[in-house]
Structure formats: structure tokens, C-alpha cells
Amino acid sequence: MIILAIESSCDETSAAVVEGRRVLSNVIATQIADHRIYGGVVPEIASRKHTEAISRVCDGAVEEAGISYGDIDAVAVTFAPGLIGALLVGVNFAKGLSMSLGVPLIPVHHLRSHIAANYIAFPELEPPFLCLLVSGGNTVIAEVDDYTSFKILGETRDDAAGECFDKTARKMGLQYPGGVTLDKIATVADTAKYPLPFPKSGAGEYDFSFSGLKTAVINLIHNASQKGEQPDVPVICATVRQRVCDMLIGNTLKAAENYGFKKIALAGGVSANSELRARMKAECEKRGLELYFPPLEYCGDNAAMVGVQGYYEYKSGNISDSSLNAVATLPINYR
Ligand code: KG4
Asked: 10 Å Cβ neighbour count for 76?
């Protein structure tokens, strides 16, 4: 079954052609340069750029896969969650395409597709497993019971981990996207130099909270500038990264132990973080757990993962008609 998949939930317009878990093409038009001058994603600009790119990106994916539009058996599209105007571009394009080709339309939840990035890289990986989903807008520990069945064990009470990285990085004057830059310039250094808090959720056992750490960094930079001092940015980056990773890794391992999971997967843009990957790998080796994380090319937003998740959604009967709408907020375990 050949699926053309479309992703436009944030600042990447992407289209891919997949056959089951096999990726035949994956074209991404990134808008990073368009948003960089504003220090973050401007939703209206994102929507306009998606509109400009979407036809070209779909044509590119079809061409690169060596097929023609007539070979496509279904169209999959990210419909939630994300920036509403950005999602609408992909959803409406996908609706038109599926109608004109006379093939099914498959709605795909963005976070489910991030998990599916692991299926691309690891053909042997099958549910059940535990997944730490960390992106710019979400931080969730989910039980992946089946390809389309999920249970949320913990989630952030306030900011997402990626948001904490991005906002603290911006305050330190680092280039957008801040999480990437922060990870690059963080030095392995004295993480006790600045008294930044170790986040605690105080809520559910596996929940997260990152806003206290974010505020502490903003205050630290602000106070330093008022005193005319130069903060040691690489050390602050390393400290923030360490504190965030402590919480992500601690909660995930605790959930794995308490629920008896032997397989853990990482997913989402923040799963590209070098410390998170290295420390999780070491901890899982120590405990005899299997760890999976996507190759860097599939960590960020891309349509290949949408296509692969779309394949499983189709198999479970999740098909839409032309009434499909975009949804800005929707939990991964929606029905
Ligand atoms: O999954 P994603 O591409 O988009 C969303 O669906 O949100 O995630 C983007 C997030 C941004 O916050 C970005 O700063 C973060 O992932 N990110 C990183 C790294 N690479 C991307 N955060 C920390 N370290 C990285 N290496």
C-alpha cells in the first residue's frame, strides 16, 4: 500500500511517500530562516509559507519516490495538534488530493507520528513499549499498548521541555531554534556554579514541570545584566540541559520500572538532545532495558513518520471523509 503523507503542523512543510514502514521519499521545506529574525515561530508566516510550499513539496516527494500520483493508494495528513492555520493548509490540501485521486484520507495525530519515527529505523520494534515524547509543545510519558492505542502516564503541568530550552536560549541571546543551539554550545562544566533549581512536578508521580527552571534562568540573566556582569552562557546551557534531562530520565525510568516495561523509546524534536540520548543509553544498558531513539533526520517534524503512522491508522480503520478538520489541541489517546 503506497501512502502519500503530508505534515504542516508547525514550521516544516513536508511530504513523503511510504510503503508500510519503508520510506520511498521524504521532502522537507523548512521555514527556520523565515522565523529566525523573530526568535520563534510566527503562526501567520508559517501558514503562508506552507501555502507557498505544499504543491512543490508533494510533487517533489512523488518524483523522488519514482512513482506517479496515480500509484497512490491513500493520503495521510497531520490534523492535530499544532498551529491551527498551519495544520489547515495540510489538511485542506490532503482533502483535495484524496478526493481528486479517489483514495482514502487518513487523519494522523502529530505525537503518534513522532513515535512512528522509531518504526522507520527499527523494523523489529513493536508495541507494547514505553515512550518519552519530548517536543517543542509536548512532554508526555505514554504507554504504547498498540500502534493506535496509548495511555498517558505523565505529562507536563506547564511548559514542554523544548519550550524550556527554546525560551531560556532566547533569553541568553542564542539563535532560534534555541534547543539545538543550547545543546551545541553547552560545555561539560560545573553545573553547580549557578543555583538553578532541579524541577519537581509536585503533581502526578510521572508528571513534569519546567516553568520554574525557565523563570530562574530568565531572572539570572536579567540580574546579571542589571549588575553589568557577563553570565557564563555555555555553563548555564549545560546546567539547564542537565536539570531538564534529570527530570525526563528520572520519571521515564521510574515509570518503566513500576509498570514493568523492558523497552523504552524516545521521540520528538528534543529526542535529538545529545545528553538525553547518551544518559538514557547508559542508564538503560545498566538496567538491561532496550532503548530506541530515531535517527536525527527523523527526530524533527517530517512526513515520513506521518506516513508510517498513517499506515497503522488505516489498518485499524481510522479513515476520514471531507469533513476532517484541523484541531489545535488533542491528547494522544483521543477517540
Ligand atoms: O518535534 P519538533 O520538531 O516540533 C514539535 O512538534 O514541537 O520539536 C522541536 C523542539 C524545539 O523546541 C527544539 O528546540 C527542540 O525540539 N530540539 C532540541 C534539540 N533539537 C531540537 N532540544 C534540545 N536539544 C536538541 N539537540
From this structure: 30
- For cell 553545573, name the residue: 191
Number of structural domains (the chain) is: 2
Beta bridge partners of 108: 78
Verify that 289 and 302 share a domain, yes or no: no
Domain membership flag for residue 132:
yes
Same domain, 154 and 64: no
Query: Of 174, 197, 193, which is closest to residue 185 (Cα–Cα)?
Result: 174
DSSP annotation of 71? G
Ligand 1 atom nearest to CA at 163? 12
Centre of ligand 1 to C-alpha 72, Å, is 31
Residue nearest to atom 26 of ligand 1 (CA): 273
As beta bridge partners, residue 141 has: 132, 154
Alpha-carbon gap, residue 200 to 206, rounded angstroms: 10
In a domain, 323, yes or no: no
In this prediction the pTM is 0.96
Domain membership of residue 67 as a residue range: 2-115+298-315
- Dist. CA 37 → ligand 1 center (Å): 18
What CATH number is given to the structural domain containing 84?
Answer: 3.30.420.40
- pLDDT tens digits, one per residue of 151-207: 999 999 999 999 999 999 999 999 888 999 999 999 877 878 888 988 777 678 999
Do the strands 290-292 and 263-267 form a parallel or antiparallel pair, or are they unpaired? parallel
